[in-house]
Amino acid sequence: SVAHRFGPLIDAARVAASASANELRSKASQTSPFSDGSWCSKAALATLSAELTALSAEPAGWWAGAPRALTASVCEDERCLVSLFAIPDGGRVPLRKFPTGTVILHRALTGAFELSRWQLPSESGPNQRPPVRVMSRQCGAEASEPLATFGGLAQDLHAARGGACAVLEVALLSPVVPTTGRAAIDWPRAVAPVGGADGTGDGGGGGEGGSAAAEGEELFEARSAEQLLSTVFRALDAPDVMGARGAGAPAAVGARGARESPIDALARAIGGLAPELAAIDRRLLAPRQQPEELLDALGVTVPKGLLLHGPPGCGKTLLAREIAAALGAATVQVVSGPEMMSRFVGESERWVRELFEPAERDAQAEADSTLAATAAGGARRAAAASRLHVIVLDELDAFSRERGSLVGDPGIRDSIVNTLLAKMDGVRSVRNLLVIGTTNRIELIDRALLRAGRFEVHVAVRPPDAAGRRDVLRIHLRRMGAEGLLAADALCDDALADLAARADGFTGADLAGVVRAAASRALERAARADGARPVVQRADLERACAEVGAQTLAMRERRALAAALCPTHAWSVERVGEWLHAAGVGARARGAFVDELIDGRALCELHRLDGGVQERVLAEQLRVETLGERLRLRHALRELMGAPAPLDDAQAEPGGGGDWP
Ligand SMILES: Nc1ncnc2c1ncn2[C@@H]1O[C@H](COP(=O)(O)OP(=O)(O)OP(=O)(O)O)[C@@H](O)[C@H]1O
Predict the structure, then answer these.
(1) Does the domain made of 2-237 have the CATH classification 3.90.700.10?
(2) How far is the CA of 312 from the centre of ligand 1 (A)?
(3) 313 torsion bin: left (phi>0), alpha (psi -120 to 50), beta (else)
(4) Are 649 and 630 a contacting pair, CB within 8 Å?
(5) Secondary element (H or E) of residue 115
(6) Residues with CB under 6 A from ligand 1
(7) Could you tell me the CA-to-CA distances from 511 to 97, 134, 316, 487 in Å, in that order?
(8) H or E element that contains 382
(9) Ligand 1 test: best mutation among 270, 276, 316, 318, most atoms within 8 Å of CB?
(10) Is 262-460 a domain of CATH 3.40.50.970?
(11) In what order do the strands lie in the sheet with 154-159?
(12) How much distance in Å is there from the Cα of 589 to the middle of ligand 1?
């Protein structure tokens, strides 16, 4: 019987189904497992193709006896369903229509098939009008690129005539929330998903919708399968999609399952900050996964500002970026404070305004579509839900100091802070914006920015303890371990615990430095051994730890000395370097000055001088010549010394110095 003949194929398909949902998900984040375009594991696919080859050697006649296409489910996940379809020669899979937002991927394992897309089909079968689009694929080189379509329009599959059956692998990716969540997918700009831009899920409506759909698909098809799949999976994993899903998505797209939560994603990238991550999860991540209605019912909104503060090198910037990634942000803009301050007057404020534009645009689109939906009388939620936009303001203290705190400041900072305040209060949709500020000096930040409603959540990011240091090391060694470039004795728990104990007082950045230094030793050895693989040994890590330790200790001691000599100016030496960089001072001069600074000499000397002379001495030391450089230096100096240099040029040179350009 047909079923009997089809049995081995189904069995092979079941083997393929052993690819767990987890495995599928991890596949989506890599590129190689999809390079052959298949969802089945390599071994299962080999069995499957052996079965198919045997079947296709059979006379094709028996297929004709099949009442309809035969199907076997290969893999079923909450968010995807992968099936095999065996279509008899010239046969067809009945017309099917999937909800708008579903992504359907087809790949020919044998034979050739044709896919027709129909508009407004009658319930019983294709309408009399010609299909909107006909696409075909056949097994072979071209088949490595699956044919992708969106749900919305009805579609049917035919096996091409010619005596061979077509066996297809069809992956159905669940609709990513039919209404609100669609916007969360990072579709390529020009692509209008099939079903029209209004996201109503009505299959595209009139003829116009059809042509837009066809055009969209053309572009969609041009993308690689890997790109497509990882995009879809990223979108599916985005917590705001999960949140929207909770708010009325189809049950087929369950919120539970083995997907990695944002907090797990953070813990995988950042070590030693478990309590801090838990706080961030409770305040910022978890609420974003809740349905909006629930938050409305509680009368709460998700905070839109997070301030990460603590000493340098403890992972604030890293954490900010990882939070944005874990939340599946549509845009992430990272801006450094000194960079912003180095702009011309007026430009910084414009820059701040521009940072908020994407979020504002989306919030406006959401408001418009909600209005349209309400006007249409439907209870339907907004079609164009705002995607999340993240702004990271690194070294926030550079421009958001207490307003009026700097005597003689020309008001640039004040107006940046004002613009920032206005913008943080102004964006309508609180769900679509997260501003993360990082600073080493929380005490300098304008209090208005720190209050609830703005940078509402404050998290101190401290150097890791011994267990944390072990976690950070494990994170930085993970890649080389996976590549087989780390000796087994170096990755065991004992070795890591020992290393973590040796690295007392190290920050995350120091520990990353230890791994880099150890790798450099392995590379050096490999180069000497002419082409050997650079395997990092436990001894490399230990020596690197001592090397970095000596450096950081020396640095810390010198910094402590500088701080002791000038207790009122115990700012970070690294920061001085960055300020001078922002002031346009060249690397060599900067390096020399920072060296002196660490010894405390430069700072003490400068500190003794009054404002204008300070500026002149510094300018001479740093070979600042042009007026522009000098003005930037003046700004940097005000930052360095805490007290401003006088503004006016005549005052600036008490010695009557008219020798400035
Ligand atoms: N907790 C951590 N876990 C893993 N890696 C870390 C951690 N902390 C720091 N690192 C490593 O150190 C690098 C530098 O850290 P990062 O720039 O985030 O520190 P920071 O606190 O923002 O410093 P700064 O205040 O000087 O800007 C990171 O890119 C990462 O490689």
Answers:
(1) no
(2) 8
(3) left
(4) no
(5) strand 112-118
(6) 270-273, 312-318, 438, 440, 461, 472, 475, 508-509, 512, 574
(7) 54, 57, 15, 18
(8) none
(9) 318
(10) no
(11) 92-97, 154-159, 112-118, 133-138
(12) 26
| Closest CA relative to residue 151, chosen from 199, 208, 94 | 199
Helix (H, G, I), strand (E, B) or coil at 203: coil
Which pLDDT band, with edges at 50, 70 and 90, does 658 fall under? very low
Residue 310 Cα, ligand 1 centroid: separation in angstroms? 11
Q: What is the distance in A from the centroid of ligand 1 to the CA of 374?
A: 47
447-465: pLDDT as tens digits: 888 888 889 899 999 889 9
Residues 6+ apart with CB under 8 A from 386: 183, 359, 362, 363, 365, 366, 429, 431, 432
> What average pLDDT is seen over the chain?
66
The bridge status of strand 331-336 relative to strand 154-159 is unpaired
Q: Whose CA is nearest to atom 16 of ligand 1?
A: 315
* For ligand 1, atom 13: residue with the closest CA: 509
Ordered by start, the domain boundaries in the chain are 2-237, 262-460, 466-552, 567-652
So what CATH class is 466-552? mainly alpha
Check: CB of residue 66 under 8 Å from CB of residue 2. yes
Q: Is 2-237's fold the same as 466-552's?
A: no
What would the two tokens of residue 147 be? 């044919």
Identify the CA nearest to 121 among candidates 92, 95, 101, 102.
95
Residue type at 383 in one-letter notation: A
Per residue in 52-102, pLDDT tens? 556 555 555 544 444 455 565 555 554 556 676 767 666 677 677 776 556
Q: Which two tokens stand for residue 174?
A: 């669940």
Q: How far apart are the first and last CA of the chain?
A: 97
Q: Is the pLDDT at 142 greater than 70, yes or no? A: no
Residue at token pair 């992956």 = 171
Q: Is the pLDDT confidence value at 546 over 80?
A: yes
d(Cα 96, Cα 105) in Å, to the nearest integer? 14
Residue 428 has φ and ψ, to the nearest 5°, of: -65, -50
Which two three-digit tokens encode residue 161? 């005539």
pLDDT tens column, 424-448: 876 555 568 899 999 887 877 888 8
Give the helix/strand (H/E) hosting 459: strand 457-460
